[in-house]
């Protein structure tokens, strides 16, 4: 089968294969593709596709992929690569075609003279006399990639060469840049991550996607761009009614504009016809009919760090009938949030539907065996984004494989979130010392208790 070189943006390295496999399953070619070279902290992946149209379908959706190339060869140096190409006349432009060559270095920045030197070496040794084109309108584009080891920039580790086929969907990252939006908030999801979530959820035309913690709707914007009908729910009515404080940098406004709400962003991006609406709702007490099903649920639940996690209490301050005036807010701890999320997805997701959500974890105390589970779901992917030296978050993708029997419930181990807020502000060195002091501390709750005692 034809081999292709995929050139990625150097970010979210763990997410590349998950996004690739998710889109391959959605477009129906997962079984016919193979991975020959996985990236090792570099942006190059070598794989096979049985049909070039499969590659183009994937590229049209991937926001992590910069560009894709028909793989020619690779070697230890430019001369080595060119010598291998001399025996293949079909790897050269036709006489009437214009051509150009793109030179990229990983871990090394080339100056313009260095790029020209490599272009001259390539064209001279292959005796290419075609007209050279300086813009992206060339008939024939070659990609030359040099991969260097960190700290060893004298000689490349390996050199790849191939013919350009297509670009990825990186333009969407710039188009949906949070700084360009009319309506944003403190926790509006980054554009790249939003589109990765939409790809993991396999959002597509005629699907319905829910974000039960939608906030300003950043994730739903990405889902709508890919054709899904989207709907959200949010606990904080101030966000939904333009009553929250402005969060844009350098703004002098003390209040939001009357139209500074979610629908304005969808209107600006031309996807208002895919926006079904948003409701003010407490996720702990779902407002949806149990006969209504979603194709996917995507969300970033509140961790209680930058935004508080709350729900309405069912405790009554008076003897009157429970309503919004009598109910009060109470803390919604992380364990209950994720138990409710998985149980909610079990009721409202269709078979084969996907639940895609972020899970906060403390790096030093993370244990994969503590991940949330449900008998009706299987884990598709688990990818980590490190936020700082202490904390990371993981994007989990679960697929509903069957309906529930005998009222099966989610399992979330409390140790996963024990005193997460306290650990968030605890230095790693302190945790390391406490985890190894006399072998008496067994989990994150013990670390937090010892920290509190020390602070007192």
UniProtKB/TrEMBL annotation:
One GO BP? methylation
Q: Where in the cell is it found?
A: Cytoplasm
| EC numbers | 2.1.1.214
Q: Name one GO cellular component term.
A: cytoplasm
Major localisation? cytoplasm
| GO molecular function per UniProt | tRNA (guanine(10)-N2)-methyltransferase activity; tRNA binding
Enzymatic class: transferase
- Keyword Methyltransferase assigned: yes
Report the catalytic activity: guanosine(10) in tRNA + S-adenosyl-L-methionine = N(2)-methylguanosine(10) in tRNA + S-adenosyl-L-homocysteine + H(+)
Member of which family? Answer: Belongs to the class I-like SAM-binding methyltransferase superfamily. TRM11 methyltransferase family.
Per UniProt, subunit arrangement is:
Part of the heterodimeric TRMT11-TRM112 methyltransferase complex; this complex forms an active tRNA methyltransferase, where TRMT112 acts as an activator of the catalytic subunit TRMT11.
Protein name, as recorded:
tRNA (guanine(10)-N(2))-methyltransferase TRMT11
Q: Supply the source organism for this entry.
A: Rotaria sordida
Q: What is the lineage of its organism?
A: Eukaryota, Metazoa, Spiralia, Gnathifera, Rotifera
């Amino acid at each position: 089968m034809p081999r292709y070189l995929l050139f990625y943006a150097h970010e979210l390295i763990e997410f590349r294969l998950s996004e690739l496999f998710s889109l391959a399953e959605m477009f129906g070619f997962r079984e016919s593709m193979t991975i020959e070279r996985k990236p090792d902290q570099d942006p190059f992946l070598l794989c096979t596709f049985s049909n070039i149209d499969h590659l183009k379908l994937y590229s049209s959706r991937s926001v992590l992929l910069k560009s894709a190339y028909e793989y020619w060869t690779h070697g230890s140096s430019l001369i080595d690569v060119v010598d291998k190409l001399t025996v293949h006349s079909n790897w050269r432009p036709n006489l009437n075609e214009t051509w150009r060559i793109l030179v990229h270095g990983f871990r090394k920045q080339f100056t313009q003279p260095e790029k020209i030197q490599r272009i001259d070496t390539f064209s001279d040794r292959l005796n290419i006399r075609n007209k050279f084109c300086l813009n992206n309108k060339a008939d024939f584009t070659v990609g030359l990639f040099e991969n260097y080891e960190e700290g060893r920039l004298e000689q490349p580790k390996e050199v790849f060469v191939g013919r350009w086929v297509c670009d990825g969907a990186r333009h969407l990252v710039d188009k949906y840049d949070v700084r360009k939006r009319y309506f944003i908030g403190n926790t509006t999801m980054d554009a790249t991550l939003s589109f990765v979530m939409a790809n993991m959820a396999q959002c597509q035309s005629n699907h319905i996607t829910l974000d039960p913690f939608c906030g300003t709707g950043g994730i739903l914007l990405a889902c709508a761009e890919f054709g899904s009908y989207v709907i959200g729910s949010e606990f904080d009515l101030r966000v939904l009614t333009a009553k929250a404080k402005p969060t844009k940098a350098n703004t002098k406004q003390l209040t939001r504009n009357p139209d500074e709400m979610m629908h304005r962003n969808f209107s600006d991006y031309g996807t208002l016809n895919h926006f079904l609406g948003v409701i003010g709702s407490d996720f702990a007490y779902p407002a949806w009919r149990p006969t209504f099903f979603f194709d996917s649920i995507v969300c970033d639940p509140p961790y209680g760090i930058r935004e508080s996690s709350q729900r309405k209490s069912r405790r009554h301050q008076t003897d009157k009938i429970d309503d919004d005036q009598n109910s009060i807010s109470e803390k919604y701890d992380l364990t209950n949030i994720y138990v409710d999320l998985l149980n909610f997805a079990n009721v409202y997701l269709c078979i084969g539907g996907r639940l895609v959500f972020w899970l906060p974890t403390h790096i030093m105390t993370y244990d994969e065996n503590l991940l949330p589970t449900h008998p009706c779901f299987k884990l598709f992917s688990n990818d980590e984004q490190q936020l700082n030296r202490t904390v990371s978050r993981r994007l989990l993708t679960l697929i509903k494989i069957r309906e529930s029997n005998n009222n099966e419930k989610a399992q979330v181990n409390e140790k996963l979130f024990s005193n997460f807020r306290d650990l968030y502000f605890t230095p790693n060195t302190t945790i390391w010392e406490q985890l190894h002091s006399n072998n008496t501390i067994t989990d994150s709750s013990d670390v937090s208790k010892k920290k509190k005692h020390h602070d007192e």
